[in-house]
Amino acid sequence: MTTDPATLQLGRHRVGRVGFGAMQLPGPGVLGPPRDPAAARAVLRRAIELGVDHVDTAQFYGPDVANELIREVLHPYPAELVIVSKVGARRDTSGRWLPAQRPDELRSGVEDNLRSLGVERIPVVNLRIHDGGSLPADQLVSLDDQLAAMTAMRDEGLIGGIGLSNVSLPQLDRALAGTEVVCVQNAYNIADRSSAAVLARCEERGIAFVAFFPLGSAFAADNPVLDHPGVVAVAGRLGVAPAQVALAGLLAESPVMALIPGTSSVPHLEDNLAAASIHLDQDARAALGIPVGGGWEAV
Question: pTM of whole model > 0.90?
Fold first, then answer.
């Protein structure tokens, strides 16, 4: 268990538990330039001013747009900044999300990230796992072969640590049997705890669990997180925004939980980061479905 509830271990680095996800910096559909480039730059600058030391990105956000904005605004990077990227996917000319699971594609993905971020090594790179049932034949690559490619790049010094994204518990256990995994990045929020078993394994092993879509999917028509009755009730009682309650609730669930909410708005960024200071009493925890007395209490 961590000694400082405001931080956690992410590979070799100690970072704040609320970081910043760069997925919303590009244009609509995570494609092309931002609607308001000045606002996107302002969000990145303000994040660093407020102490954010964990930025999550990917070369295929844009493509290249998120990484190039990060490089333009933040390079040379602060010594304490941990940039986390991911490989295993790509975009085609129409913007479709496609798998890129072969070892040669994983290496190309890392090299693209190095180029667009302007670095010689990326602190952490997540391998984005895809559902094998929906993959074309040329993308049916074993997890062992993918991890071998990632391990080789880690040994070469191109990446500092290996993470896994969109991973099942059996896949995580198989990976842990062969290599060190420094973080897991799965969808997780108040309305979707389908990765609870993966989170539990991360707790057992002291692995950072980085929740993406902590406020619900940006691609969904409705939002079961912000409309969750418990979230709405607790927000009203505490006089804070529902999004802040949803984020604070996740932080209260586990000492290995980290969040990467994304936004292209400075006020929303400030609200998201302020969620780390919200204390949830037992009534609030119960309303949000957080186990009480389970060995971790938010402070």
Answer: yes
